[in-house]
């Protein structure tokens, strides 16, 4: 059974641009939701909501975690948005886990300035015995980003859980409510989007970018895209941008 240690931010002074909350409160809520999801999928999860960063790393090391996951939200200039993930390097297991989580989490976050970078100087990335994935989910210093984070705690946790399942080749087990929602949507599974106006809001801007670049042309019917096709296209676009940004 894989052991996943969750280390949520304790930065209570990092206030959000919307929602009258802060980074620590939101990341601790994410940790609780993620722990539930991981255990539902057959993994063992530990999350300390009160210890210091150094104490959390020591606890993770004593426990013998297989993966050390840091949960944070980001801030910069009140304009930039997107999800950033850090690992020790860009070739080890930490990077592979980061990539799996990024591929699940980045497509659902509203921002587009997204990448995975090596950041061995971060204490938790450097000091944890287990491979470390340091997640900065969206920028909380923008009103849109802050509102999205506070309204999507469960979605964030489930996306991270899916990524961890992907990394280890573990079958993802959906929450009962999620399964019920899937059943309600099942008749729409074969839906194909033919125009920008029909697309989900999260996919419109980047689909327009692909059209402008000539990378997406559609056919005589229109765009003719399924939701799975949209997610693959957007992941590919964001990955290409991240590589170009270095």
């Amino acid at each position: 059974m894989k052991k996943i240690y969750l280390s949520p931010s304790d930065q209570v002074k990092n206030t959000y641009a919307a929602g009258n909350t802060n980074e620590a409160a939101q990341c601790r809520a994410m940790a609780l939701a993620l722990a539930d999801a991981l255990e539902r999928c057959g993994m063992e999860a530990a999350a300390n909501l009160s210890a210091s960063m150094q104490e959390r790393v020591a606890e993770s090391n004593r426990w013998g975690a297989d993966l050390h996951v840091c949960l944070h939200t980001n801030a910069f200039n009140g304009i930039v948005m997107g999800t950033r993930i850090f690992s020790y390097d860009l070739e080890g297991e930490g990077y592979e886990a980061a990539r799996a989580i990024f591929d699940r989490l980045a497509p659902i976050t509203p921002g587009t300035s997204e990448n995975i970078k090596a950041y061995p100087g971060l204490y938790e990335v450097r000091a944890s015995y287990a491979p470390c994935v340091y997640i900065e989910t969206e920028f909380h210093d923008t009103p849109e980003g802050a509102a999205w984070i506070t309204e999507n705690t469960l979605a964030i946790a489930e996306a991270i859980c899916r990524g961890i399942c992907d990394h280890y080749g573990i079958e993802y087990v959906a929450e009962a409510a999620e399964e019920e929602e899937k059943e309600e949507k099942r008749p729409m599974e074969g839906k194909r989007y033919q125009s920008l106006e029909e697309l989900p809001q999260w996919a419109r801007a980047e689909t327009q970018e692909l059209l402008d670049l000539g990378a997406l042309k559609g056919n005589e019917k229109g765009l003719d895209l399924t939701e799975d096709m949209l997610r693959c296209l957007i992941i590919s676009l964001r990955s290409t941008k991240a590589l170009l940004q270095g």
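The mean pLDDT is 90. The chain has two domains: 3-168, 190-245.
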